[in-house]
Amino acid sequence: MRPPELVSTNPATGEVIWSGPVGGVAAAVAAARAAAPGWARTPLASRIAIVRAFKAAVEADADALARVIASETGKPLWESRTEVASVAAKVDISIQAQAERAGEKAGVAGGVTQQVRHKPHGVLAVLGPYNFPAHLPNGHIVPALLAGNTIVFKPSEQTPAVGAHMARLWAKAGLPEGVLGVVQGGGDVGRDLAAADIDGLLFTGSAHVGAALAHQFAETPHRILALEMGGNNPLVAWDVGDVDAAAATVVQSAFLSAGQRCTNARRLIVGPGSEPLVEAVLALADRLIVGGPFDEPQPFMGPVICNAAADALERGWADLQAAGGRVLRPLRRARPDRPFLSPAVIDMTHCAPADDELFGPVLQIIRAADWEAAITAANATRFGLAAGLIGGDAALFDRFWHESRAGIVNWNRPTNGASSAAPFGGIGASGNHRPSAYYAADYCAFPVATLAAETLAGSITTGLKP
Known about the structure:
The protein is of the alpha/beta class. The protein contains 14 helices and 23 strands. The strands form seven sheets. The chain has a seven-stranded mixed beta sheet with strand order 12-15-16-11-10-18-19, sandwiched between helices. Helix 2 packs antiparallel against helix 4.
């Protein structure tokens, strides 16, 4: 009997991109377990050399990898190319982070050496998302390999071709067999991997799946679980001077990647006298080109990942209207058989919608009477990933920084501008304080404290019977 097969299609055209068998968790974990001792004993310099060889392989294959990403996600080719650049750039950043955050420290006091070194956990699972199918799992894989872990990687079921392509690049870089295994499949395969003989799991994805993983890991506290999830991110516009620049920042924050970034702004909170900004945002949104990944001229937005995602967004849009929202720009679907959605804007002032992450091109506007009301609205979410302020002065931003609740807080920059050379992640339903990016080294190895002396010397002088 043939194993079940996973099929991936281009969301813009419906063309089959990839097909292959699903499952194989037990064999992949066993191979990773067998390879773990040897990889952990491999000198760090040798691991660094392989990781740098992977960077070179990515750079040599940049166009092909970008085209696979664009074909499978529907993202414009220009954006897919920026993702490939981020994959390559992650290597040097991770090497530096490994040295600074998980390196060796030693000192001598009273003839005793005090030392801190780090050990890998062992076998780590990585569950990747579809929105950045190369860059985001790569942000876990590279630091985990540098730390000496072996990995079983399950790409999103929406982007198996990208995951398979990445594995081939690692093999080309000389990564030993068994150190990185790839299993394909949907949620059932992810649950099987989470329940397997692994030492931890590194996850990027939705809050719903992250909560399910936390529940699954509740009785295994010895296994590490790093969760990087989404957000219902606020962008506050206050005392804005340059309306056109502010509108561009809002539109990029809300609609980049067709709204499929965890750091996209979902809620624009504006103060009195904000109508010129709102009108400028609507006018700019009307000009955005929505199209296929290889269209010319290149679009600003591609489709969302699949028809099921588009259906869910249309239901969420209907819920916003049912909650009392006033439509400023409707959510339109260009074709019923393909997931192309227009950028949508709705005024939710004085409404009480559900605190959900609508993972697509939907922006809610909330009007606040004063700064206190604006901050209250910004923090009215169980999430805490990104928040931004447009306008104001340094004193107002300092206040915003202290009063907002998020792991990323920007000023006069889009909410979805984050550097891999800084920590990344959020609080609340956005994650478990194990941010990705530069601090990934923290959760890929555990510190071991040592006291050591070359000569054995010990005596007990107090509390002994004569």
